[in-house]
Amino acid sequence: MDYQHGQVTFYDPGTDFPAISVTGRVCELGCDHCRGHYLGGMKAASSPKQLEVLALELSQKGAKGFLLSGGCDASGRIPLLPYVDAIRSIKSSTDLKVNLHTGLLDGQEARALVRGGADCYSMDMVQDEQVIREVLHLDHGKQVYEETLKALFSAGAGHLVPHICIGLAGSSDGERSCIDLVSKYPIDALVLLGFRPTPGTPWSARAAPSTERILAVLRYAVEELGRPVLIGCMRERGDWRLEQACLKAGAAGIACPSRRTVEWARSVGYRIELRKQCCALHR
Fold first, then answer.
1. For the chain, what is the domain count?
2. DSSP for 173-238?
3. What ranges make up the beta strands (E) of the chain?
């Protein structure tokens, strides 16, 4: 790459684009790598009315938008459908951007959810059936993820961005299978995440994926997709060497980059854009 002609977007959601959970800290799946830990860092909206009140407060404070997510039930679904009318109201009465983390969906659920008019639909993509059964504790085959992808496209989801977590499986075969699958669809971008050891989980002592593995998956995605590939916020933070290597390998953007990476990118001539929002909204 000729860095003098490179373009990169750095994302820093912070308080301008908070994450909101519709289930608080509750998640029925209890995945081995998470156990609901990250729900604890989200704002809680236990009812549609509470979400509307929270969104109004965010708008009045000048926020850009929010990620709406939550814990899953035993089938891998996030109870977002009761919030559809609230999302419509928020979109009509404020300038907030809304990124929905959908969970698994069937066609009817996808149609109902898309009627809310969110700006972005983020979904997890997993194709390793051992991970699905033994790590995520789902009684599903890998086809449910493609079914969710199809359902969202059929429902008219306008900006769809799958997320792949590197390091949940013993090898990168499942991650490459995810990339092969989403390459068949007109996704808007792909977000790559990295497993991070989390205290209080069964995987607290498991190693994070190596730099070599992350870069190999990134390069494969860049080559196969021909669409923006982004490095998301769920990963081990502060590794500026990895972040710079990801930019050299073709990443279009990085969420929550280290200051050293931003300074380096500027020094070597990248055209830099800074955004206070989720990287999934990349355009």
1. 1
2. HHHHHHHHHHTTTT-S-EEEEE----TTSTTTTSPPPPHHHHHHHHHHHHHHH-S-EEE-SSS---
3. 7-11, 19-21, 43-44, 65-69, 97-101, 120-124, 160-166, 190-194, 229-231, 253-255, 271-275
- Reference 189, options 221, 220, 154, 227; nearest CA is 227
* Encoded tokens for 69: 């997510």
Residue 71: domain span:
14-234
pLDDT digit string, tens, across residues 222-251:
999 999 999 999 999 999 999 999 999 999
* Claim: this prediction has a pTM higher than 0.85: yes
- Cα 62 from Cα 260, distance rounded (Å): 28
**CB neighbour burial string for 146-170, b if at least 16 within 10 angstroms, e if fewer:** bbbbebbbebebebbbbbbbbbbbe
CA 260/CA 5 separation, integer angstroms: 20
- Residue 254, domain member (yes or no): no
d(CA 19, CA 98) in angstroms, rounded, equals: 10
CATH number of the CATH domain containing 34: 3.20.20.70
Q: What value does the mean pLDDT of the chain take?
A: 96
Quote the CA–CA distance of 17 and 68 in Å, as a whole number. Answer: 10
| Residues 282 and 255 sit within 8 Å (Cβ to Cβ) | no
